Amino acid sequence: MQKRCYFLLISIVLLSCTTASRDKSSLPVETNESVILPNQDIALQFINAYTEWITQNPDSVDVWIIRSPLVTDQFKSAYKNLKDSALQAAPEIGLGFDPILDAQDYPDKGFEIIHRDSTSEFVTVRGIDWPEFLLVLKLANHENKWQVDGSGVINMPENRRADR
Fold first, then answer.
1. For the chain, which terminus, N or C, has the lower number of CB atoms within 10 Å?
2. For residue 30, pLDDT beyond 80
3. What's the domain range around 6?
4. Is 0.70 topped by the overall pTM?
């Protein structure tokens, strides 16, 4: 009787080990094919649409940012918090510069991408009619959709910002 119990116990243990190893081998393996590469054209689309908007509608920039599907919620929140803080500190002046462009002036004819790295979230653009004007934008993937998550001083690490 005791031998049967041992045999039964060993059989159950062996069977469960075999099943466990079989289950692990059937799990999907993450490969490079599953990595979603950044769509860096979103950065260019955003910054060109933004500069076009501020040229034509400078008084409604905040509304445009809040409604834009091209930027993350974190970007919108950081933008609003920065603008609100600046208005509290200096109600007549506010920031005194555009935080998305990190400048007061900007190229009139839009931007073009000058540096893209297929594995990086950062994209560098320059002014078409002002090639010395550089801007770095940061992308983020939210629910398999690439959006701008940083530009100028909004959500950008200081060491990744363009020199001014």
1. N
2. no
3. 2-28
4. yes
